[in-house]
Every structure is written in C-alpha cells, then in structure tokens.
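Hey, can you fold this one?
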Amino acid sequence: MDTARIQSKARELMRNHGKNLMIPYILWVILSLINSVFSGVVGYYAGQVTLYELAPELVTMKITASMVSAINLADLISQVFSVAVSIFAFFHTMAKLRFLSRYWKGETPSWREFFKKIYPNARAFFVHVAVRILHSLIVALGIIFLVIPGIYLALRYSMVEHVLAEDPTCGVLEAFRRSSRMMFNHMLTFIGLNLRFLGWYILNIFTFGLLSIWLTPYHDLAIVGFFHERLETAFPTRSATVSSAPTSAPEEDSPFEEFTEERPVEEVASDTTAGTSTSTTSTDDLLSSNDFSSLDDDPFA
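Sure. Predicted structure:
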C-alpha cells in the first residue's frame, strides 16, 4: 500500500475542498468550547455554594438563598448539557466518517449535508455506542495488564467505526471481525501513515493548536483513504457468474460480502414421449476465496 499516495490525495482534497471539510470541525470546536466554558463557570459557583455550606467564613462573596437555588439549577442544566454533547459526539463521529468517505470517493457534498441520514434506525446508533464502549474496554484492559497488547488491540480494531460508517447494518462483533481482517498484516503500514503527520503535529504546537482546524480533517481524510484501500483488497467485489448459469435480477451487494463457492449447475432434460431421459452436466467456474485461517484466533470471529 502506497501511504505517500494516500497522503497526497488527502492533501489535494484539502486544497480543493478545504472549506467544506473544515466547517463541521469548526462547529464541533465551538460547541465544545461552549460546553467547557459553561461547565467551568457553573462549576466554580457550585463549588462556592458547597464551600459556603461547609465553611461560610471562607467565602468572600455574598450568597443568598435565591442564589443557591439558581446555581443548583444551573449546575443541573450544565450536567444535562454535557450529557447531550456526549451523545451528540456519536452522531458527529459517524457523520464525519461518512462525509469524508464521500469526498474520498469523488463526491462533493456541501457541509450542509454533514448531518444528513446519520443513522438509518435506532439500532444502528446503539450498535455504535456498544462498539465504542467495547473497543475502549478492550484497549484499556490491554494497556493495564501490558502496554504492548493494548497498542496491538487498538491497532487491530482501529477500523470498527469506519466499518459501521460504511455498513450501518453491521453488528457489534461483526464490526470487530471485519476490522481485524482489514488490519491483518497492515498494522505497520497504518503506523507508517500516521507517522507521516508527525511533523505537522510538531508544527501545530507552535501555532498553539490553531493548525488543528486544518490538520485534523487532513489526517482524518488520510485514515479514511487507508480504510477504503483495505476495503478493496480485504473484501473484493464478488465476481460475476458465468453466462451459462441461471440469471436473475441483480441485487446490490454489500462491500463486505465475502466470496461464496458456486456449486455445479446440473441441467436435466427428460424425454417423456420416448420414456428415456438424458442428463448433461455443466460446471461453473469456482470462485476462489482467500485463506484467512490465521485469524482463527480472533475472539470476534
């Protein structure tokens, strides 16, 4: 896999469509800042109320009963708002991955389409929540016991959310299985792709993080490109059957549909008038399938 080509294409997309690609990120930064400032201010005054109740002589500001009620209400609103932002983060992540994928595939959607059709149903949302929680637990346990296994598991299942963005009907364990298959023998390549952005992140330090508005979608685009490169090789489109086989109306296949072996088609012609029958057998070409027996140890297989 040519990581330089992936990075070059991502940079070209940012050059041509940077405005549309950066606006959703800017909106998220604004929302996060509002949440942080609101929570910080309310948290400060809530702390003053608590301190006043424990040691009134340490509080310099005058606190009345009505002020206590107002601060407690604001604290409750702040907590509800923080929970809402956390839930919104799932929608933003899924919308972001689909939005970037559309640009990678050659489409040019407007940023106004960013939140269009994020989850097809409630099940897809809860699957996403379960996948993120399970992924975090797996990585955390790996790091707690030994650091190296945690890093390995983080890399092996780094594509789970990308899988869900590409196929919203996918289940929890199936998303992990597909990610494992896609990252097999390509973890070092993925690390190499991320290391290509190391210089940019060092430069970002000197801009006090302002470069992140451009760097984050640029880096995310490259990761999306890596995902689609692996998607084409790990889950190739099923070949068309030979013309002698019975035909039916074509159906849209999932990009993750695996190879299935075609069984020979037997054509039997019977002669009822003469009381005899003959049979002829024609054999289709067998579709070959890749051997992934080395992944048998995958707990999600």
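Residues 235 and 256 are 5 Å apart (CA to CA). Let me know if you want another pass with a different chain boundary.
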